[in-house]
Design brief:
Chain lengths: 227, 314
Amino acid sequence: MITAERKPFEEILELLEGKEKVLVAGCETCVAVCLTGGEKEAEILAAELSIKAKEDGRTLDVDHISAIRQCEWEYLDAIAEKVEQYPVVISMACGIGIQSMAERFPEKLVLPAVNTNMLGMPQEHAVWIERCGACGDCVLGVTGGICPIVRCSKSLLNGPCGGSHDGLCEVTGPNKEEIPCAWQLIHDKLIAQGRQDLLMKVTPPKDWSKSNSGGPRTMVKEEAKPV
Amino acid sequence: MSDNGLKAGSNLERMFAAGHFVVTGECGPPKSADYDIVAEKAKALASCTDAVNITDNQTAVVRIASMAAGYIAAQNGAEPIMQMTCRDRNRLAMQADILGANALGVYNILCLTGDHISFGNHPTAKGVHDIDSVNLIRMYKDMRDAKIFQCGEEMPVAPKLYIGCAENPFGDPFEFRTLRLKKKIEAGADFVQTQCIFNVPKFKKWMEMVRAEGLHQEIKIMAGITPIKGAGMARYMQKFVPGIDVPQEIVERIAAKEKGAPQQEEGKKLGAEMIKDLAEVEGVHGVHIMAVEWEPAVPEIAEMAGLLPRPKLS
């Protein structure tokens, strides 16, 4: 799933400086599951903005709404009536949802309330871990199902580097958390699977043209297009 | 390969070919446009080593580029080993830089992954990591031997390169460290410099595994030595430097002396003892002395270890 974190309140206030009529728009898909931008979180942000405006003695007409998926036209159509009433929309959807909102309602000022950060999985309740870099050229078949592109801090295809120690990466995460060495995990998994021969194969340089390095990507399923 | 059987013909390669126990040093370029600092370090190392590593934005901190500093070192009598990390360049820049360096007379190259960008002075920068060090070695080998760029295009004049790599016998998974060296040899590495060694018994165990695979016959192995300047440095490396294994008895040996000159003397003595010890290990072809911001200590350590004068090749 796509995960996102809410921006600091001060940054949201800066983005909304001078605005008097604002709609907070949540999304009920990925950002709701990661407890960042669903209807409940949209309601909370709207309330916080309202309280802050009152404290500052400002006029602010703020309300909230949530789309089933902000990244699809039909679900944006479903909230269009409400959106039309506000000149400014602050979206709590992922970057895709925010841009879809801006494209669907070109006359509105659409602002982000979250930082979209990764394609992650819920490791345990309230903890998400990055699992995929959407690189367009999956190597999981030769790495024991463990992605070296996002789980190795240096995206090594032929690791581990010299900084692997006691199963941990030399890098500590942004929240000071310990990071498991992806190549220690790959090493152990391939041996456990009896596929250690793969460890001795050199994986050639990656074709990054299939990732965003090749420019923005478009996917077309010709067979599914309406005739 | 040229008619004389050499790949690059550098002093480093020829010293190995002549069967000498080889000595390399290390020069960290300054964090400023200061020619003289590089020149002085190079001069200090020129007479007591056979070649000198020129670090590439070491610890992810911006410094004079390794190509330029390598050229300055050469102008001042030290044969450069240009370090190249995968952190700061994509494959275009890596190939362009090696062509440029080679055209300027830099023939030894050390292929490294590079310390992670978060350790340096620009932690918000984007780490490149387009290709990794194993693929970097192979790319340079192909440029040299097949006269082709990574994309497969041919070039009229190939670079002459003596290709090095690094390996850390103290990294994990320990058993895989020899196999990773084997991968680097297969990719095209001619010599390897190890991470600095403090835990000599563990290094010897690693060398046993290297010999069991026959790797010491396929690559020139240089044992890494970092002289310890004081107990504070030993403790810092023990606790904070990734991939370095400093046994407690080493910290205690240095700490037993008074701070300042006595600890420095002990550090030099320990370095020289370790070199003598490592030189006896079968399959060790040389020593790489990394005196971090302490280059002037190298001649003395080399002297104490019986490595001077360096043989001059005709």
